[in-house]
Write a structure and sequence with these properties.
The protein is of the alpha/beta class. The chain has three domains: 3-48, no CATH class; 90-213, no CATH class; 216-279, no CATH class. It contains 14 helices and seven strands. Strands 1-2-5-4-3-6-7 form a seven-stranded mixed beta sheet. α8 crosses α10 (184-197), α10 packs across α11 (203-210) and α12 runs antiparallel to α13 (233-240). The longest helix has 26 residues, at 248-273. The chain is globular, with a radius of gyration of 26 Å. The protein starts with a helix and ends in an 8-residue tail after the last helix. This is MULE transposase domain-containing protein. It comes from Aspergillus ruber (strain CBS 135680).
């Protein structure tokens, strides 16, 4: 909560409406001083979060709030790392029964500049919804950071449910696939964890047997590159065709075609705008 978010909040609007006013100053003249409002908000922060709002704040909440303690399954902190694993027992019991799940990085919900939220989700066909089963708050976004994340989450699942986490290509039961973004750090961390479970296979073999890349981000990048104009429909389809190539040879042929088409397109634009085609980089 900040002074700005408070002044824009629906709760404040409702309070003003109940007092036949449009702003705090209309309710009472003394409330026209925003410094006073800021001081009140700061006082409430200190009362509600005496240990701050990072690791120490979480540890304090776990001491006084049984529901928070039930939800936070593990926390880690040292000089460089912060990690918090959150899930209810029922969520983990559902996760261990699945054949696959998706791992995604969220950047939107947190104010802290160096803190990210990694979520384990699944789609429920009967409900038509995607639900989150695990949330991990971490300041690490490196291959070793993801390795620790996967290892710790799977250990938490085993500890809470009493069932070891298995992978189909290793144990002939368990998870058959994990849907990930096309993020090399994420896949490298998972590959390191799987290789630790079974060194008889290479990291690449483990990933080929487990990883399913999410195509949503790929298609978003296509739209970002060429736009949504109807005239670009053909090139969008050809770019999306990279996902379904049957061989490396077909893949590189399509890349060459797309590259040639791009340069022709740029030369045409430059000719219409009066620029010299030699200016194309």
């Amino acid at each position: 909560m900040t002074t700005s978010t408070f002044l824009k909040s629906p709760g404040l609007q409702q309070f003003c409406h109940e007092n036949n006013a449009f702003t705090l100053a209309d309710v009472h003249q003394s409330l026209n001083n925003t410094d006073r409002v800021t001081a009140i908000i700061q006082r409430q922060k200190l009362l509600h979060f005496p240990e701050g709002q990072h690791y120490n704040g979480v540890a304090f909440e776990m001491q006084i709030n049984p529901q928070i303690k039930e939800y936070i399954q593990a926390k880690y902190q040292d000089e460089s790392e912060f990690m918090l694993i959150c899930a209810l027992k029922e969520q983990l019991e559902l996760l261990i029964t699945l054949k696959s799940f998706e791992v995604d990085m969220s950047y939107k919900r947190l104010k802290a500049a160096k803190l990210n939220e990694v979520v384990f989700t699944t789609y429920l066909p009967n409900h038509g919804k995607i639900i989150t089963l695990v949330r991990v708050f971490t300041n690490q976004e490196t291959p070793i950071g993801y390795y620790r994340l996967f290892k710790r989450v799977f250990q938490v699942i085993a500890n809470v449910t009493g069932q070891s986490v298995h992978f189909s290509h290793i144990h002939q039961e368990g998870f058959q696939g994990i849907v990930c973004d096309m993020d090399n750090k994420q896949t490298s961390g998972l590959g390191k964890y799987l290789y630790e479970l079974d060194p008889s296979r290479t990291t690449e073999e483990h990933l080929r047997s487990t990883i399913v890349f999410c195509q949503v981000h790929f298609h978003r990048n296509i739209t970002k590159a060429v736009g949504n104009h109807p005239n670009q429909h053909g090139i969008r389809q050809r770019m999306a065709g990279l996902l379904t190539c049957k061989s490396m040879e077909d893949y590189y042929k399509l890349l060459d075609l797309l590259q040639g088409e791009y340069w022709l397109h740029m030369r045409l634009i430059m000719s219409f705008t009066g620029h010299n085609t030699s200016e194309i980089q």
